[in-house]
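1st attempt posting a full record on here, be nice pls
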Amino acid sequence: MIVIDPRKTELTKYADVHLQLRPGTNILMFNALAYAIIDEGLTDPEFIATRVAEFEEFKSFVADYSPEAVAERCGVDAELIRKAARIYATDTPSMAMHGLGMTEHLQGTEGVMTIVNLALLTGNIVKAGAGVNPLRGQNNVQGSAHMGCDPGILTGSITIEAGRELFESVWKTPIPTAAGLNQLQMIDAARDGKLKALWTIGYDVFLSNANAHETAKAFVNMDLVIIQDFFMNETAKRFGHVFFPAVTSFEKDGTFMNGERRAANPRRGSPRGNARSDLEIICDLAAAMGFEKDFAFNSAEEIWNEVRAVWPPGYGITYERIEKAGIQWPCPDIDHPGTEILHGESFSNGVKAALRRIKFRPTKEVVSEDFPFLLTTGRVLEHFNAGTMTMRTPNQELRPTDLLDVKSRFGEAIDRIGRKG
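the predicted structure (as tokens):
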């Protein structure tokens, strides 16, 4: 096991190699791993010949990223980088898993591309036990994103223009011509007086956002803030005008989708108190606004059947079929067994995938004589996400405060300070 993390997490105790790189040097590290794999003859020539494009161009590109050339900037010994490259390339099949520390970054998307490069070079893709697996921040984030929660993306992760004809034919109404605002853009717009109302479902925006002062200014500037959650969270306490009590995911019907593209229908318990399902709350509010016919859903299955109608790769995933076991998409018809491994014969853009030549761009956040420390955040085992749920449980006794690990610029631990959360 190889762990690549600026922090020395609990997982590093079990790792064969811990590449404790400096924050912001991901691209340097992964390009160096690619160099070592090529330099030491650890590639999969057959896979490269049949499924990979632009290998020679990539080989020339990474010539500037040898482990010896980047070791000082990464803060990791060159031989340790080479050792990790050997393990990944030879002890196959190898699977790469990355979290939000990779993606929520200046070169986040490009960083994932450099991981894909490693999989392509070594043939660690399109076979069991291999691949690149993005670990999402919470349960069913994969499913909710796939339903079109991101602005500019429709159900099935289809762009607005690509899905326009099908969606308008099913929904019987025109769809927007431009993408909406993401969460941070909404906060900026509210701060500037351009957004006056916000309806937030299952997300404690004020507690979660990094810059609480700026977030507070945005919320104060809005005329209407609706919170839909199963706890009176911090956003609701401080800024909410209306609170809709919702049931948990285990008290309502619906589907979950996990990191292996498997859609499942978990068993539910009985709702408690006066809380209601998101389906009921949303449909009732839509009816009050005059859109009752457009939201005339009586069950989660009815909504799922509409999802199937606008998402051809998932049309074969019916409630009846996932009653006993989940099914992995693509599953285009009801006789299809589901797809265990993606890209078996071709990728989405053809038989071959091109190796991406990603140049390193330093982050603006660097240490100096006046500011010798760099702050980076991370999650903890004892609390789930922002602690909206776990802070109300005995988990609070396991980790009652936030902790700040302080290290010198040279990586030497100098202190561990506890402070109130």
